[in-house]
Amino acid sequence: MIFTQYYLDCLSQGSYLIGDESTGRAVVVDPRRDIDEYLSEAAEHGLQIERVIETHIHADFLTGHLELAAATGAAISYSEDADIEFPVESLKDGQRISLGEVTLEIQATPGHTPESICIVVYEHPDDEVPYGVLTGDTLFVGDVGRPDLLAGTGLSADTLARTLYGSLHDKLLKLPDATRVFPAHGAGSSCGKQMSSETSSTIGEQRRDNYALQLTDVDEFVAAITEGQSPRPHYFEFDSLRNRELRPLLDEKPPPLLDVFDVYQHANAGAILLDTREQDAYASGYLRGAVNIGLQGRFAETAGLIFPPDRDIVLVGDTELAAESKTRLCRVGFDRVVGQLRNVPGFFTQRSDLVETPSRLTAEQLAEWLESRPGLQLVDVRNPGETEGGVIPGAQKISLPTLTDSLGSLDPTAPVVTYCASGYRSLVAASLLRASGFQDVSDLLGGYNAWQEAVAA
């Protein structure tokens, strides 16, 4: 058997290739849109990808089922309960798919979504202990899938959580302890709240260590997994809809290079200016009106938190990273990257009239400002679960995913200071406020962690 996990750190997303060496038949599960790795490995092992299986309708990224089907002729499969707007080969609970010796068994495991499935993998059809189980967003290492992402669609978080409890205890926990667990996500994903950084485990380890599986009372289980979840990112609904549709395939061409005149023409027409440089580079000077999201952080996910998906994007960060930036945005469905600023280093030296420097405060400076600047608006952009451990006195709690919708609650003429846990999200938030017309915006260097250290000193 060929079994490969592809783990994308920037999205905390796992996808899988499973092949039978004796027949050369293979499937790919939960693929991302840039599919070259799957095609390369299949070619290396002489495999034909004949099916793409989605464990559910994903909301946090655009999957590569259409790209793989176009490249290989593979069939696309979802659960029979999935509402998909193009032809698929539906899968039923208990159905077995033979690749030769390698055999896959479908388990319907609704809860995270109504159509969620898990895929039990057997190296040989008669094996008593499966090789592993691909758990999608039903079971993670250290957590289970959040049940609240469909709130507002007629399916309550409470109802889905109770369904999830049944799927876990009546299906997955019936598997032998030695069965390996391969989830679709890990730590950092918005699809759960206590996921481990480990990308695989076993049923036995999860039975013993996973907090959610320790809760044998269904009401306690429901309360535990519905409380403290981060706000649902805006782009989740968009991606969920796009994953149901026939949509254009991924365009992997680098974005065209633009002069500054063209950049601002796009901006005046409503395009977002996105600076993908890291914090130190951005802090040394940025193009007026640009929002900063460092490419080395949770770049695409963060863009999805704060940008609407129906606007053009112009990249104004490092030119040599433009293609990578575009690909990462496309992974979450943001396909409208219309260009990249030409010759960024030269631009920043030649057009200083268009370059601004952000205000960034140490914890000591913030303490002085809180005493000396009446009307200062202090904004904590961490998620609700993070703020339970404390906030800086006087702070308003506006998590980053809700900031765009909360601009009206802030005074654009009064000073604002943003902070998060360590500084990445607060700089994003500060740059977004500046681009939205706020006149006096700073962020806290080192975030709440730095504040706590300063207070303790």
Task: Describe the protein's architecture and organization.
The protein is of the alpha/beta class. Helices cover 30% and strands 20% of the residues. The chain is built from 16 helices and 23 strands. The chain has helices spanning 36-44, 65-72, 157-170, 203-209, 218-226, 235-244, 260-268, 279-283, 299-306, 322-331, 344-350, 363-372, 384-387, 400-403, 424-435, 447-456; strands spanning 2-8, 13-20, 25-29, 48-53, 75-77, 96-98, 103-108, 117-122, 132-136, 180-183, 201-202, 257-258, 272-275, 286-287, 291-292, 313-315, 337-341, 355-356, 359-361, 377-380, 396-397, 416-419, 441-444. The strands form 5 sheets. Strands 6-7-8-9-10-11 form a 6-stranded mixed beta sheet. Strands 1-2-3-4-5 form a 5-stranded mixed beta sheet, with helices on one face. Helix 3 (157-170) packs across helix 5 and helix 9 (299-306) packs across helix 10 (322-331). It starts with a strand and ends with a helix. The mean pLDDT is 94.
